[in-house]
Amino acid sequence: MAELTTTAQAGALARPTLEVFRYDDRIVRHFTLATILWGFVGMLVGVIIALQLPFPEANLGPYLSFGRLRPLHTNAVIFAFAGNAIFAAIYYSTQRLCKARMFSDWMSRFHFWGWQGIIVAAAITLPLGLTTSKEYAELEWPIDIAITVVWVVFAVNFFGTLYKRREQHMYVALWFYIATIVTVAVLHLGNSMAVPASWFNSYPIYRGVQDALVQWWYGHNAVAFFLTTPFLGLMYYFLPKAAERPVFSYRLSIIHFWSLVFIYIWAGPHHLNYTAVPEWAATLGMVFSVMLWMPSWGGMINGLFTLRGAWHKLRDSVVLKMFVVGITFYGMSTFEGPMLSVKTVNALSHYTDWNIAHVHSGALGWNGFMTFGMIYWLVPRLWKRELWSQKMANAHFWIGTIGILLYVLAMYTSGITQGLMWRAFDDTGRLLYPDFMETVIQIKPMYWVRLIGGTMYLGGVVLLMVNVWQTIRRAPKDLPDPAVAVPAASSTSAKDIPVA
Amino acid sequence: MFNRLIKANGRHRRLEGWPFIFTALTALAILTGTIIEFAPLFLVDDSMTAPEGATPWTPLEVAGRDLYIREGCNNCHSQMVRPFRHELERYGNFSTAAETAFESPHLWGSKRTGPDLARLGGKYPHLWHVRHMEDPRSTSPGSIMPDYPWMLTARMDYEYLPSVMSALRTVGLPYSDAEVENAPALARAQAEQIAAEIVEQGGPEGLANKEITALVAFLQRLGVQHSEPLTAAPDQP
Ligand code: HEM
Ligand code: HEM
Fold it and tell me: Model's pTM, two decimal places?
């Protein structure tokens, strides 16, 4: 900031010199549109695989069979839908919180197009069966290298913006972005180490137990630092904005940030309870997972209590409604997670649809609804036009909420049913259901219910698409980047409510 | 003391003005757990040692394993039997660290939409697998497993195997030079044998150079070599 202080010392002049700059909102519009597009694609694939499970005839040929489409679904919704959403959030809020344009426009563009290129590469290679088989890290090594390059450019762009910021203190959203960028880099590099056999094929340098532990150190923390910390950052910025209330507690945000970041990384082995990994590792994972409950709920409390005295605003604000349901699902899945880590519970839940219920209460509830809330808040501001239809947005909210409930209730039922059937013995001490097929047939009806829930949720996304499309159609042709004037050499201290 | 850190305008507030130190502290926070958890595993643990006398997959089985990965079978099938009585009854002996020591990548899986396959080898004749892969409903009525009819017709090209075998050797599988160089020939020989057995069992002819044969070789190998007699396991919790 030294270069900024040269103009004038605040107070030395009667009238402070003003410095004018512009936020880059074009890049935010890009990321927002990409979020919506890929959200639709990824969830459409989700609906297709949800159909394939009870109705195997829907496996159409090699490229569209379940085993190849499932990784496409997970990669599309995590890295394309949630990924673009957090980039939109980061690019919008970081500029405002730092009172500075992004460090480099060129890097912003490179980040955007590079990331979309990676997504397209994933959408081509996964149906072709080019996969490492490691969950959430299925992409082959050339794409892994591309991800590394794009992530480094993103990091330089982000930290460059922090460096030239005009706001002295970093608001809590930025802490979560920092944790995201650093940790995802470490995880990606650590887990992707492999020896290539050809352009499309490679083998991890880890084997057996090591590979499993590295994989779930990555897998669990992909959840933590791709689906949790950036969304907490999103929450800390957009929720106070939408509610026009400062964040509930500054102290709580410090405590829960540092404990979350410190504890999450240990919890990976809870994915490997009772497997061949050393006992101490699984126990360590379990203990830290249980501890994780507290900092997780710290985030939830800080979010929900931000609305104290503002609950009446929920009635007219679809944005707040989305946020509240999102944060509530965050609270539920982070209560459930520690419970699933406890060995006796995991003995029942592991390998069953209970996991799928847990995943989607987090994914559809927390990641999905926080994203939709943000989009409904952002679109009118980015395109300078009121949202086309509040009614339609409300319909999205309800159809989405019912969709989630159907989805997760079906999967809890099927998960617990299957878990209990697998372990049931008859009086003579023999398996009650020795034929695996019996347990499959039992849960088929639940797969149909899940399909209905998932289709409703996807229907909500379609409503969002229509609404956004109609809003944009009516937007002014010319959308100049918003200009901001700040006193040169400003060093106002950060307030708990973000400044824009 | 702690209060001085977190109070409004306390020490943490100052830290918020130093992004690079803040980032370094964050990195420290995540690296602590990582290092403490992994150090024992990489430095002293012997779970990466295969049982004595164990050999890694044959070239044909490597090819079959690649197909298993390509088709994403691991999205529905685990290969990790847990030490519970009901799993021992259903699948066989529980899995040990040593028997997975050659697995790069590991294929333990996280979801059992279908049954565990860690002890599959020898459970069915080859022909059952051929029929099952062609149409799972024909052997297991009501099954929700996808069919893979193209595996019976798609030609298998074994010429790619040496590069795979040498990559696997780099990550630590004990293959000899001869095995790496002659991988295609070795694979073909084993495939001929399996194809002949399939015909003997009344199956179709001419599968020796088809993908299905490599897959069957891999499936029949699962859990076979290192399987020990059923031992007492901790009771179900
Ligand atoms: C329309 C909405 C969606 C539908 C119908 C859907 C459907 C499915 C289905 C059928 C599976 C496979 C389950 C199995 O193997 O038994 C699955 C897995 C998964 N989905 Fe979704 N999904 C949807 C949205 C999402 C979203 C928005 C996310 C994330 C942001 C997500 C993340 C995942 C993950 C991580 C898995 C893998 C779970 C595991 O391995 O345990 N899904 N989904
Ligand atoms: C305190 C926080 C959390 C803890 C302790 C936790 C714990 C767990 C546990 C124990 C499992 C089951 C592992 C197994 O048996 O295979 C699991 C699976 C999973 N969780 Fe969580 N969870 C938490 C929060 C979340 C959130 C907020 C999300 C999503 C947004 C999420 C996404 C997932 C996914 C995707 C899986 C499936 C992984 C797989 O098998 O492919 N978790 N979690």
Answer: 0.94
